[in-house]
């Protein structure tokens, strides 16, 4: 057999194995509310080729080579054991079993113990107040989660009517996205009932400019969490207007909160969320991207001081062409210029991580890209850092630590910003760019400022609703190694 034929046969064999994964992944999600992933890359909804591509991608992003047959074996094992609602990293189970001398089912039975017998959470109604970039991505994630039948349930969006055919335009924007691609599934419009139907999920579209006046109970919505994506109100008094509406129990702001409002970065201070907290903030995309990395660095080395420079994709509050803008410099064309602007992310870190209060400064440069940003962390440390040791620590933190949902790690000379579109992690450390000279370190952290942040918002929502899934394998503390 020549080399070409051998490679073709190998591809065909791997393709057949991937085909067998699809019904397993789907049934685990629908019947058991189990979300499967490979090092944080979700498997649900992927095609045969998509499953093979994600196997290749995790290897390219610095993880160990993962055999398709091993992934299939673990998925078949999960189907046999039927765990309850959980988030399961199949790649880590493959790695764990490779280091274990027991048969697969015995190993899985022990690792899955926290999820065996777990009962689905009661559904919690969610309302999206505002339907812009973040609102539509939250809708996509919530709709995908609905297939499990528990946890968060998207019931409505609230917007101001923009045109006679407003409903059709809203549905079209949900279906088509120039950055994140087409919605996976079908989107229809029910004009008579003012609803968007996405993959069978009926989403009530409510037109209002007054958050206090909406009667959500008229649409069968009760004890809902309202996610305010408008940024119009950022303090407790302004956001409290939502609580005056019938059917609303709690409010989550997708922007940095002002005053005494708790700013939550999931993985850092989500354990401070109490049932009595009626209004919370999910902080900013940049704060979510850098705080987990800064926490890991402070725990291992101690941070004396630092400066955060964000190279940030342009956003909707900038002008496409030169025009008046109330903000400094933001009136100049976003698609033609790099624009120096302010960021509150460095100070906001201390809202979630008080031990860094007063230690960080920050600034931002808006650049002509539509999504994915880069934070450059210039840190002075209490203890000197060796580059190889530091990178190994952050790599292990991305794989095994309690921050592995937030921190990812990559070592590839080929990656550029578009490679991180759709990343579920809050931030991705670029190991090849790390600079370490004694007590001075520079880290480069990529982040999808739209999708990665939206995933963090969903995690906060799940915590508020008490439906955050059991995570398998259990995360552990990661420390420096000699």
TrEMBL record:
<dbReference type="InterPro" id="IPR020831">
    <property type="entry name" value="GlycerAld/Erythrose_P_DH"/>
</dbReference>
<protein>
    <submittedName>
        <fullName>Glyceraldehyde-3-phosphate dehydrogenase</fullName>
        <ecNumber>1.2.1.12</ecNumber>
    </submittedName>
</protein>
<dbReference type="GO" id="GO:0004365">
    <property type="term" value="F:glyceraldehyde-3-phosphate dehydrogenase (NAD+) (phosphorylating) activity"/>
</dbReference>
<dbReference type="InterPro" id="IPR036291">
    <property type="entry name" value="NAD(P)-bd_dom_sf"/>
</dbReference>
<dbReference type="Pfam" id="PF00044">
    <property type="entry name" value="Gp_dh_N"/>
</dbReference>
<comment type="similarity">
    <text>Belongs to the glyceraldehyde-3-phosphate dehydrogenase family.</text>
</comment>
<dbReference type="InterPro" id="IPR020830">
    <property type="entry name" value="GlycerAld_3-P_DH_AS"/>
</dbReference>
<dbReference type="InterPro" id="IPR020829">
    <property type="entry name" value="GlycerAld_3-P_DH_cat"/>
</dbReference>
<dbReference type="GO" id="GO:0051287">
    <property type="term" value="F:NAD binding"/>
</dbReference>
<dbReference type="Pfam" id="PF02800">
    <property type="entry name" value="Gp_dh_C"/>
</dbReference>
<feature type="domain" description="Glyceraldehyde 3-phosphate dehydrogenase NAD(P) binding">
    <location>
        <begin position="124"/>
        <end position="285"/>
    </location>
</feature>
<dbReference type="InterPro" id="IPR020828">
    <property type="entry name" value="GlycerAld_3-P_DH_NAD(P)-bd"/>
</dbReference>
<keyword id="KW-0560">Oxidoreductase</keyword>
